[in-house]
Design a protein that fits this description.
The protein is of the alpha/beta class and 222 residues long.
């Protein structure tokens, strides 16, 4: 008589050794070489020892912009010894052409397949909008320098910390208010939708940086 196969997988019963958790690998590629890499290195450090076996993050600050940044990421994936499941491109509007800025999301969607997903984490006007939203909500149209100035004011007043581009520990000092920042990002989405602003270049201020936490947020310590 042929023995029946165990149905423990249906009943939820454990069958000896626990199932191995599949690690996911993430490549974060930013145009900035100071603020963004330091922030995401903080994210990587916050994973904790246990979750480092489940999620691996590699951070690259390139100094490249928009479409050149995407080309860099594709080449890195092609020649890297590891295989990345998610590629996060972190870039700003600043003064770069709207056509290039707007094309990035479409190109990321075109490159994504069942094995790897490219994510366009754009900020308009600049990355500093993301930490700023941890402190306050704003719909004021800003230049990059305006945004950095307001962030510096908020950090000085609330934390007694002087903001600068090469500040270490930015993730650690603002992350306690991540939930508030994500809510404010959602309010900005609704605000721009109401104005009919569809293209990323038309959405000032707005940012998609917080979307990375949809994927890796559950693994962060604390």
């Amino acid at each position: 008589m042929v023995a029946k196969k165990s149905k423990g997988w249906r009943s939820g019963k454990r069958e000896g050794r626990s199932r191995m958790v599949q690690m996911t690998r993430h490549l974060v590629v930013s145009e900035g070489k100071e603020t963004e890499p330091r922030y995401f290195e903080g994210v990587r450090a916050a994973l904790g020892a246990a979750n480092e076996r489940k999620v691996a993050i590699v951070v690259k600050g390139t100094g490249k912009h928009t479409l050149d940044l995407l080309d860099f990421a594709v080449e890195h994936c092609r020649y890297a010894p590891e295989t990345f499941d998610h590629v996060w491109l972190v870039y700003d509007k600043d003064d770069f052409p709207a056509s290039d800025f707007d094309a990035m999301e479409r190109k990321c969607n075109e490159l994504s397949d069942g094995s790897r997903t490219f994510h366009a984490l754009w900020s308009n006007p600049c990355f500093e909008l993301w930490p700023l939203l941890h402190f306050r909500y704003t719909t004021a149209h800003m230049s990059a320098s305006d945004c950095q100035h307001v962030l510096a004011q908020e950090m000085s007043r609330d934390l007694g910390i002087e903001y600068r581009k090469n500040l270490d520990g930015l993730f650690e000092v603002v992350d306690g208010k991540r939930g508030e920042a994500l809510q404010r990002v959602g309010r900005l989405v609704t605000y721009h939708r109401g104005l009919g602003n569809v293209k990323p270049s038309a959405q000032n201020p707005a940012t998609k940086v917080g979307e990375i936490f949809d994927v890796i947020g559950p693994y962060l310590a604390g």
